[in-house]
Amino acid sequence: MSSKKNIPLPETFALPHVGVETHAHLDFPDFAEDLDQVLERAGNAGVAWIGNIFLSVEAYQAHQSRLSARQNIFFTLGIHPHEASTVNSGVLADMNGLFVGDANLRALGEIGLDLYWNRSPADVQIRAFRDQLALARERDLPVVLHCRQAEQETLAILQDMDFTDRPLLWHCFGGGPDLAEEILVRGWHISIPGPVTFPKNTALHEAVTRIPLSRMVLETDCPFLTPVPFRGKRNEPAYLCYTAEAVANLRGEPIRQVWESCANTAREFFSLPPA
Ligand SMILES: [Zn+2]
């Protein structure tokens, strides 16, 4: 028997059609060829809403209308730390105008610090992060946070900008119980990605058992971070079920409960109507 036969396909989980995939990059060239099929598979796998994360004003302008034509895709927009040097007063004004004009833009992000790849100098990243946080405050927008190898710096800036108890989603959480606690105590939300399916991520596994589902959402970050059993292949929203399954197994809860509760949390965070 081929090993492929043993892989449960997403639709076999028979999850209710309420799921919220909170972080996808469907405007990336990886999905240029087969977006229709990708969305169909997501729907068949119980994904009712997909959050598309635009990383620049240009990406939004190029792809917004094409993706708006699809049902149940919502948007976020923020300048990623890799592109921090592009943030200036003109870009911030453009972003502000887009948020005013498009009610489907539900959050500002992903923004933050990435001291792992360090594609922009740290001081430039910090300035871009602070400028965009200021815009989020001004417009009263939820924030989707990107943080890689910069936890203490990020917490210090958010403290300084008075973000405690404001709506903030720590995207692609990869930390342990201590970092989860730091986030929860500040009133923020945590998004669990595909690497929770990797056997060696024991600190993350421990954290997942401690985060209340009322503060947890699920994401793929596709095309990246593909969960087991498709690790190494392109990721897509339909694979959210594998992340839900891993979370459910770690917590000893039914996958349906994780699926529905995380969806409720995401719908509330992004102010989405019921599926
Ligand atoms: Zn992302």
Automatic annotation (TrEMBL):
Keyword Glycosyltransferase: no
GO cellular component: cytosol
A Pfam family it matches: TatD_DNase
Alphabetized Gene3D superfamilies for the sequence: Metal-dependent hydrolases
Residues given in the record as a divalent metal cation 2 binding sites: H146, H171
Residue numbers binding a divalent metal cation 1: H23, H25, E110, D221
Keyword annotations: Hydrolase, Metal-binding
PANTHER family according to UniProt: D-AMINOACYL-TRNA DEACYLASE (PTHR46124:SF2)
Family as reported in the entry's similarity comment: Belongs to the metallo-dependent hydrolases superfamily. TatD-type hydrolase family.
Protein name: TatD DNase family protein
Native source species: Desulfonatronum thiosulfatophilum
Upper classification of the organism: Bacteria, Pseudomonadati, Thermodesulfobacteriota, Desulfovibrionia, Desulfovibrionales
